[in-house]
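Q: Got a minute? One more chain.
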Amino acid sequence: MTLLEHDRYCDEIITQTAELRTVLSGADLSAKVPSCPEWTLEELARHVGGAHRWVETTVRTRATEMVPQDQVPDSRGPEGADAATLAAWLADGAEKLAATLRAAGPDTEVWTWAWDRTSGFWSRRMTHETLIHRADAALAARVPYEATPEIAADAIDEWLQIVAFVQSVGADKEVAELRGAGRSIHLHAGDAPGAEWLIEFGEDGFTWRRAHEKATVALRGPLTDVLQVFYRRLPADSERVEVLGDAALLDFWLERATFG
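A: Always. Here it is, folded:
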């Protein structure tokens, strides 16, 4: 696995946010988000903009512990905003975050909740945070969603790293259940060369790598759709993907793979 360049992630934060803003344009901001049913489309947008500002504050201040939300300037955005005002607020937050991350570079030490305590972790995390919430917004607005292959594949890599990290620190009982030797999952995106993953369960947890090998169950389809199933934005029985083998094992993974 090779990470993308830090500057590329900074670019993508702006790009993904711009595409999210496009989804918001003309959409019903009160619409419920099917994949995040506790949120409306407006609340989803405020979550993304707030996350950008929280990370920007974290990196800019070189925080050594989690920054409280009440210390993040303008984290909820303008009250009673229409789509255009909300979109402008999102753009401003993404630009400020990208600028702060560029100024810090990828190796600045800063607080994170994960295995990597650098600003580079945040440039990658915010890219994929925005990418996946753009999928949520597209579902709510009922518009098409497409992810650039390079970014989508990296999002799957990162998600596997996150789930493995959560398991390694014992942060979630359900993630701890992702074990049991002799079982495996193969992800195969037919439209993107090299976009294949093998997840192997062991007695102590699971491991993963990029590989084309037979497995207990295989999830196949276009990379954007494989990504959405893997992030639980698209059901595994969707006609846009194909599940071969033990579908119950894939469901077992999807029910338990989480941030914790």
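A: The helical segments are 6-24, 41-60, 83-104, 119-141, 149-168, 173-176, 223-230, 247-256.
Q: Perfect, thanks.
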